[in-house]
Amino acid sequence: MKVIDQKSWSWTLYRRDDEYILSVLCGSVAMYGREVILSKNEISEYLEHGIDELAKKITYEPSKYKSRQIIGFHDDPAVKIADNEWRNSHKSQT
Predict the structure, then answer these.
(1) Which residues contact 34 (CB under 8 A, 6 or more apart)?
(2) What pTM did the predictor assign?
(3) Residue range 4-19, pLDDT digits in tens
């Protein structure tokens, strides 16, 4: 598991082998994450145009992605390691 890219307070894109997983911050008063595995079409769109548009769709209509939600994603030790590695690598760049 590795963090590929991140937009603070918006989304984080992870890669695990051939899977891309997008974690998007949703909500207004009560904030929560919605994590989904990208489809082949979404991966193609990401590689061609970036991830911002898909992240916006998920943020504004999270219920459309509920069936694809990964429950307990951030409890996975591999995700915690990837997040820490990302933070540590970007601390040294600021």
Answers:
(1) 23, 24, 26, 58, 62, 65, 66, 69
(2) 0.91
(3) 999 998 999 999 999 9
> Which of 58, 3, 1 lies closest to 32 in space, CA to CA?
58
C-alpha distances out from residue 62 to 49, 65, 81, 83, Å: 21, 5, 26, 23
| Torsion of the alpha carbons at 61, 71, 86 and 21, rounded to the nearest 10 | -60
Task: Give, in order, the Cα–Cα distances in Å from 30 to each of 17, 26, 40, 41.
Answer: 32, 8, 31, 31
15 burial level (CB within 10 Å; 0-12, 13-18, 19+): middle
